[in-house]
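This section describes the prediction task in plain terms. A model, or a person checking by hand, is given the sequence of a single protein chain and must write out its three-dimensional structure as a string of tokens. No templates, partner chains or ligands are provided. The sample shown here is typical of the held-out split.
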Amino acid sequence: MNRNRLFYLDAARGLAILLVVLGHIWETDGLLPVLIYSFHVPLFFIISGILTAYSGRERRPLKDFVLSGLRSLILPYLFFELVFLVISGVRSHFDFSSQGAHIYDCLLLKPLNVPLWFLPTLFLAELLLILLLRLLRDRKLCALFCLALYLLPFADGGHLLPDAAARLFLASGFLAAGYFSSELVQKKNPPPAALAAAAAACGILARHNGKTGIYKLTFHNPLLFTVCALTGSFCVIFFLKKFRCPPLELIGRNSLAILGLHIIVLRVLQQILGLRTDSVPGGLAALAGICLLLAPVCFILNRFFPFLVGKRR
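The expected answer:
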């Protein structure tokens, strides 16, 4: 797999992690958070699905895939959760009851460092997709099965599914969307006018549907949720195919560290330094501060402890 050919996926991942950070900075139901939450997490899963197809991981021995996932996703998950537990514990004298959680919740896919839920969910979703591809041996049948799993959380009006399972099924659907559209993404280049029109339509629909989110299983209208997630994600991917953006590519290659540490830095900026982040200028200032403060941390992790961020070197 030629990583240089996939520059736009690194850039898309970089933009996605910046939107994740902004979503946690602006915790309101305003227009910008609504637009951000309509597609930023599905974008991550779709990118991962495209990369799964490009890498051909489904053809590798299952043992190698599992070990690779444990190294690249689960080990960083446990590391960043431990860092968060220690820092939060020092402040709360290791009494986590006030946060409505127990210290072992991270093993139940309910981390105290909430954004980390994405990592084990991605690992399990990729594993599920690989198993389905091998068991069903038919791409169309596998796609239909993934679609059925994706629809289950919407049909679960009685909330019989555990939250972790519902997130897994939703993630599997978006992962499959990326996997099965990988050839289309590689070959097609929609004109800018079409992308702009699709993005505008996505914004209008997202505003109409309100703030959604996979973690809290908030969808409102499932059809609008799905259309906005897919349209917004593919608009970003196709738009970033048209030109190189090295800063976004660099951020994308460090998205895991930013995911695991940005809440800690954000709380420092908000609670210790007193930065007001509810306004647009304040939120953008917080985003810039997080990026600047995490830049040396990412360098140290990449240089001396790459295994903690899922890298070999």
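For orientation: The chain has one domain: 3-309.
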